[in-house]
Amino acid sequence: MSFHAPFDDQGEVISEINMTPxxxxxxxxxxxxxxxxxxxxxxxxxxxxxxxxxxxxxxxxTVIISVAADGGLFWNEVSVSESELRQRLAGSAARxxxxxxxxxxxxxxEYDHIIQVMAMMQGAGIExxxxxxxxxx
Length: 137
Prior knowledge:
Helix content: 25-40%
CATH topology of the domain at 62-131: Nucleotidyltransferase, domain 5
Largest sheet: 5 strands, mixed
CATH class of the domain at 62-131: Alpha Beta
CATH architecture of the domain at 62-131: 2-Layer Sandwich
Number of helices: 3
Distance between the termini: 59 Å
Strand content: 15-25%
Radius of gyration: 35 Å
Shape: elongated
Strand order of the largest sheet: 3-2-1-4-5
Number of strands: 5
């Protein structure tokens, strides 16, 4: 390290890197790290109470109702008529817990067909309905 004035007599800047501030910062960071590590690993022993295990309720089945572009109806990929769909919806509504119903429509399906299926579900007493979509690409 040289202890010259920042400018020589010819007016040129000295292009040496002063390492002292860098070493000072690194030492401060090292000291901070050495002080914080013991605090982070310190633990307190506690006698935590345990909970009794509760029997898990049976998870409901999942049913996917699909509506094709031409208005065709499908119950878990099996073609069904409108009257058969109404019967299956009534049977599903009577079950406890009700199965999870998901409605999937073709991209070219008219909204009228989707609304009719939703009305059938509401009339049957289905409480929860989900819509199946595809994420945008």
